[in-house]
Amino acid sequence: MTVPRTPLFSRLTPGAERNLADTLRGERTGGVLLIIGAVLGLVLANGPTSDAFERLSHHHLAVGPVDLSVAHWASDGLLAVFFFVVGLELTREIQVGELRHARTAVVPMVGALGGMLAPAAIYVAINAAAAGGDVSGWAVPTATDIAFAIAVLGLVARSLPTAVRAFLLTLAVVDDLLAILVIAVFYSDGLRFGWLGMAALAVAAFALVVRTRLADGRWLAVVAVPLGLLAWYATLEAGVHATIAGVALGLVVPAVARRSSRPRPEASAPSAPERTDDGRDSLAERLEHGWRPVSAGVAVPVFALFTAGVVIDPSLFGSTLVDPVAWGIFLGLVLGKPLGITGATWLLCRFTRATLAPGVRWREIGAVATLGGIGFTVSLLIGSLAFEGTHRAEEVVLVVLLASVVAAAIGAVALRLVRTGRGTSAQ
């Protein structure tokens, strides 16, 4: 009797595919995969596979007119998917979320601004005063990693009020928007305005397509994907970091769902299509739902794999320990972030009519602010742009990893204490 062979890697059933996608959409899963990618990169770069890993990182792949190394495909190509999802999240927050109304958005927005200015000031103060300092990396400690920070919050403090999570999410979203502006303004080389104009036209055409009936049909991918790829390629050729194209494309997607008009009495005037106010079933929600597994399961872990894959030896530790750039980044993330976020928020509430959301206490704001020091993805990206081709590029990776781990640990402990205190007071 012949036993039929079962392929080792057979195609998943539709139900299994849905379960896998739902798992990858989870905040915890994204944070865990990000950590796994970074740790795996460190192992591959420092073990017996170090030579093979280095050759793989620098191996060039040509896709049409674009010829990049594997590591650059990860940072310029795959990471654009992550920023596209960030753009979708931003447009939903702006159109139907926490950023829709000034009175609810102003507190975390000012907190995000403070969380950017304080780390930058600490970094510049250290590097301007120290011999051998370099102020060009001032933006490295200004970014917060959404996936990592939300994952830590979900792991250790799930019982905190929803308003606390909304504060952190809005804070991180605005933080990312500010980081995107910083990359576009300060870390773009030799702008080519012809290509920049083509990128803008491609984004505008994409915006028109997603607002037509094609957005509700199968032809959306046939038309929109080539426009998105054109926008990405033109942005790359324009001298702007290609991830900016991902954000721009995400921001132009409508986040308010159109509903068909209801039946009306004959005497009544024609009514416009109704709009929901929560963004459910909007194109932005559907695209975010579809692309988030790719971002969390592929784009960010692969980026972390190649970016964190640096060779660590005693000389690297020694140079990092005495480098003012490293100290500026570390203190900016671990100390500057929570001080800037909490301080700016307190000053706003102290001297204006702005208030914290009902049920949110200052100790919870302080605990959540420590998670702002988890820079990781965007900090690593800015660091690679600021110090590309220099000996400090590897130091930046090491210190961002260390600072993010320290900030996550401090934040986890603080959130545990806050949650315990809330539970005790409730009793």
Describe what you observe in this structure:
The chain is mostly helical and 427 residues long. The chain has a single domain, classed as Na+/H+ antiporter like fold, CATH 1.20.1530.10. It has 16 helices and 2 strands. It has helices at residues 14-25, 27-46, 50-58, 70-96, 102-129, 146-156, 162-186, 193-209, 219-238, 243-251, 283-307, 314-321, 324-351, 362-370, 376-386, 392-426; strands at residues 60-63, 66-69. The protein has a two-stranded antiparallel sheet. Strand 1 (60-63) and strand 2 (66-69) form a beta hairpin. Helix 4 packs antiparallel against helix 11 (283-307). The longest helix has 35 residues, at 392-426. The termini are far apart.
| Principal-axes shape call | globular
The strand line-up of the biggest sheet is 1-2
Spans where pLDDT lies below 50 across 5 or more residues: 6-10, 260-276
The helix/strand series, from N terminus to C terminus, equals HHHEEHHHHHHHHHHHHH
What's the main sheet like? Answer: 2 strands, antiparallel
Mean pLDDT: 82
Helix content: 55-70%
CATH architecture designation: Up-down Bundle
- The CATH superfamily label reads Na+/H+ antiporter like domain
Separation, N- and C-terminal Cα atoms: 68 Å
